[in-house]
Amino acid sequence: MFSVFHKLSWFFKEQWLRYTIAIIALIIVSFIDLIPPKLVGTTIDAIQSNQLTAARLTELILIFISLIVVSYAIMFLWDYNLFGGSLLLERKMRSKLMRHFLNMSPRFFSNNRTGDLMARSTNDLKAIMMTAGFGVLTLVDSTIFMLLIILMMGFTINWSLTLAALLPMPIMAFIVHKYGSIIHHRFTAAQSAFSDLNNYTLESVRGVRVIRAFVQEKQDIKRFSSMTEEVFQKNKSVAKMEAYFEPTIKVLVGISYTIGLGYGAVMVFENRISLGDLVTFNVYLGMLIWPMFAIGELINVMQRGNASIDRVEQVLAQTSDVKDPNNPKFTDVPEIIHYKNVSFTYPGAVGAQLSAINILIKRGETIGVVGKTGAGKTTLFKQLLRDYAPPEGNLTINQIPINHFTLDMTRSWIGYVPQEHVLFSKTVKENLTFGCGEKSLEEIHHILESACLRDDMESLPNGLDTIVGESGVTLSGGQKQRVSLARALLMDPEILILDDSLSAVDGKTEANIIAHLKKERKGKTTLIAAHRLSAVKHADQIIVLDDGHIVEHGTHKQLMNENKWYKKQFEIQQMEGEVNE
């Protein structure tokens, strides 16, 4: 159970001063809290023996008030340091998780559902925070405070009465241990169910248009209700187990009270203790109720924290399959990119997605990559983006293997416009400047012109300050594509990768964008994957992929002289364009 503290030892060592102050303050407050019951007993004995004077009563009241003021000040000290530390742990763990997510490769996200990662980043971190705050409090109160009370009862009143009253304690320890192990198992299951629900909710919100289009609202609500019920039942089973703590402890405390009152009364009659001692003893027994409850709360918090930190560490333990080299190389500008017999297979896939790829790309060239759906165009680009471990063969930049550079270096050269256009729920301007920081309005308008987007932006309610909504919901498909393109162009990257990024625009707009690209990208490398061959007609090299192999390679003119897929596809698209006109 206490292994959770061992797992968090790195944080306690880091914040040792904060926790030392908090624990010492807690112990001092615990000791101060033991003085008033003794004063009550002393007062009762003085009243019984007619020895209580006005001066003595005033003295006792002043001592009471002084203890209250001192206790308040010290309580603030431990509360601030202890719970401030737990909030600091939550912040550190959340930042650690976020850095981990950002450093992970696509393989990590294909193996972990988004909803599950969100659950571990929220609910589980809250449980860990409770361990570092409330858990430490209950640990101190259920051990040191309880020990101080027992010692005070034994040494200042009577040891035989104390031991008799504490007979139910071993029974309580056994029962609490059993409850704790059951709670750990049930809480883990409840958190897992919550992760499933979180993931399903996220998918439903993202896919709400598809759900409506297929008239699946009722079925979706039914599935959601079923999952909600499962989460409810599993959390209910945890709450049910937790509910046993209080009545169990109350029964055992009641037995202690009965023993203390009965045996204590006998001892008063036998003059072995005074009436004031009996009252003080019963006050101490009452004070033992919280430490006994604290044992139950401690078990509960520890088991929750243990289950949660295991779930978080399970995520943190997963390593990226793409890492920076120990001794990275450096180069200013990627002059030559060379694919030498490059082959690649996705983790867990059967059969290679790229086979024996050979391409030499010089700085300033435009490379067109075409082929059927699933031919390997995006996979070819992902080797440059280093989304996966290095492929077989050699992929070099300036004759240096690409994995000898840091990830930051290679990615800083690249502006990437993917097939799935990711826009953030911010303004258009914030989306445009996402990868390059602040830009002047002149620079932004110039790029909007290049992406044939300026008129569209001017028609928006607030222009560049228009909020695009979740995933750019307020923009059309073509507008989202062009915002993504403009965002990459604003970076002015050495290598621009357009992964079928003009599919949602019409032929005329595409031609205008290509014309602007030819002008703007002089002296810099551009890679374009497209289904419309008109988008790559101007390229210095055109590569035709089929099932991961290069089946044609040359300029537009060279490929048109060959009676193969490229020529046939180009002629078909030309005829389709004429028919549409």
In CATH, the topology of the largest domain is named ABC transporter transmembrane region fold
Radius of gyration, in angstroms, nearest whole number:
36 Å
Largest sheet: 6 strands, mixed
Q: Considering the protein shown, what is the CATH homologous superfamily of the largest domain?
A: ABC transporter type 1, transmembrane domain
Give the CATH architecture of the largest domain: Up-down Bundle
Describe the structure.
The protein is of the alpha/beta class and 581 residues long. The chain folds into three domains: 83-316, ABC transporter type 1, transmembrane domain (ABC transporter transmembrane region fold, Up-down Bundle); 328-413 and 494-581, P-loop containing nucleotide triphosphate hydrolases (Rossmann fold, 3-Layer(aba) Sandwich), CATH 3.40.50; 420-492, P-loop containing nucleotide triphosphate hydrolases (Rossmann fold, 3-Layer(aba) Sandwich), CATH 3.40.50.300. Helix content is 64%, strand content 10%. It is built from 23 helices and ten strands. It has helices spanning 3-7, 9-14, 16-33, 35-48, 54-103, 106-111, 114-156, 159-165, 169-206, 208-213, 217-243, 245-269, 275-287, 289-316, 377-385, 407-412, 428-432, 441-450, 454-459, 477-490, 507-520, 556-560, 565-580; strands at 336-344, 354-362, 366-371, 392-397, 400-401, 414-417, 495-499, 525-529, 541-546, 549-554. The strands form two sheets. The chain has a six-stranded mixed beta sheet, sandwiched between helices. Helix 21 (507-520) links the parallel strand 7 (495-499) and strand 8 (525-529). Helix 8 runs antiparallel to helix 12 (245-269), helix 12 packs antiparallel against helix 13 and helix 18 (441-450) crosses helix 20. The longest helix has 50 residues, at 54-103. The chain is elongated. Keywords: ATP-binding, Cell membrane, Membrane, Nucleotide-binding, Transmembrane, Transmembrane helix, Transport. It comes from Gracilibacillus kekensis. InterPro entries: AAA+_ATPase, ABC1_TM_dom, ABC1_TM_sf, ABC_transporter-like_ATP-bd, ABC_transporter-like_CS, P-loop_NTPase, Type_1_exporter. GO terms for molecular function: ABC-type oligopeptide transporter activity; ATP binding; ATP hydrolysis activity. Residues 337-572 form the ABC transporter domain.
